[in-house]
Amino acid sequence: MTTTATQDPRETPGAGRPAREHASSSGTAGASGAPGAALAVLPGVLASALAWTDAHRTRFALPDDVLEPHTQVNATLKPLGELAQLGSTIRRTTAPGAPEHELAGDLVAYAWEQLHEGALLLELLRAEPFAAYPYEIYAAFAGYGLRHEGFEALARPLTATRAWAHTEQHANRQLGLVNSERRVGVVTHTDAGGVLSRTWLGGLSEPWMFEGPSGYALTHTVFHLTDWGRMPDRVPGKIDGYLRTWLPAWADGCLESGQWDLTGELLAVAASLPGPAPAELLDAVWPVLADVQHPTGCVPETGVPVQDPAPDPYPFIDCYHSTLVTAFAAALSLRSLRQTDARTDETTPGRERHTP
Fold first, then answer.
1. In terms of CB atoms within 10 Å, which end of the chain has fewer, N or C?
2. CA distance 355 to 351
3. Whole-number pLDDT of residue 346
């Protein structure tokens, strides 16, 4: 199996323990972890990753020239949109009153403030009516209940154009646009099932053809299909079985090559499947990713985890996404494992159910 690594992290000089040794010290996806190992580390992983994100919230702030043509969307609006998307999912997935629930909601509110409560997205849409990204960012807030009347008034005729329906993009990206339309509450421009069939995952591609780009396409196909893990029942049975069979091998390859960001996304996929949680996979992988997490809460995207005790051991751009993904995957995994435990309590004869 190939990965996205351009350099073997085991050959990186001057870093901490080799990635493979680092992973094998806690077990890998190919070797079962102790039952309950995921639940033992997940609360701490989630709390720590969110605490780091909160401490670095100003790094998500938009620059004054965000509307200028020279501004890089991927370094400004993209991180803020990801903060909103993953934060809103964590908020919906965690229990009301829990510190993580409140903090996630606070981070979403911060992102909405940065966008002037949607007014900035309206300006973007006016400037780039042909672009989908302002709509997709807006949909993350709309799905959470934050709306801007002026944005939707302009978006409505734009999304009814022939150009919108025939924008040329990869199938998983088109599936994301369909999900954005669902969130906003408009008629989708095409059938989600037809789009899914054209994705790498929907075609049940040969599992040994998995590599970095197809891995991220696969994870985002699931995120768009399930509305970021909120609707697991949207995953068709054949795809559910395919993922349950091959996720362990793919996760194992990502651990061996130090692909922590993609590992987190695969864990989020595993926790977005319908039915019982794939507990053996979660128990095997989560302790490894917990060991990779820095004491400050951040998680590097790739490579050997550093042993530097400094407050910011990695550049922000190299760890913000993987840290958000870790928090997102942890929240989904906790939900999935707890729901499985609850179902077991309810169906096991003679077993008393305890509510903490």
1. C
2. 13
3. 62
pLDDT (tens digit, 9 = 90+) per residue, 332-348? 999 999 998 877 666 55
pLDDT of 131 > 60? The answer is yes
User: Are residues 209 and 203 in contact, defined by beta-carbon separation less than 8 angstroms?
Assistant: no
Straight-line distance from the first to the last Cα atom of the chain, in angstroms, rounded to the nearest whole number:
43
**Cα 164 to Cα 19, 64, 135, distances in angstroms:** 44, 29, 11
CB 19 within 8 A of CB 7: no
Output the pTM of the full model: 0.89
- Cα separations (Å) of 263 from 4, 58, 139, 259, 290? 12, 27, 26, 6, 12
pLDDT of residue 33: 81
Query: Within a 10 A sphere around the Cβ of 66, how many other Cβ atoms?
Result: 18
Looking at the DSSP bridge assignments, the partners of residue 302 are: 259
Element (H, E) at 50: helix 37-55
* Average pLDDT for the chain: 89
Q: State whether residue 259 is helix, strand or coil.
A: strand
Please name the amino acid found at residue 292.
Answer: V
* Cβ burial, residue 7 (10 Å; 0-12/13-18/19+): exposed
Neighbours of 244 (CB within 10 A): 15
Cβ–Cβ < 8 Å for 89, 222? no
pLDDT at 2 over 60: no
Helix (H) or strand (E) holding 236: none
pLDDT-derived band of residue 28, with 50, 70 and 90 as boundaries? low
Give the integer Cα–Cα distance in Å for 219 and 228: 10
Span of 105-114, 143-152, 244-253, 301-310 with lowest mean pLDDT: 301-310
Contact (CB, 8 A) for 47 and 99: yes
Distance CA 183, CA 172 (A): 17
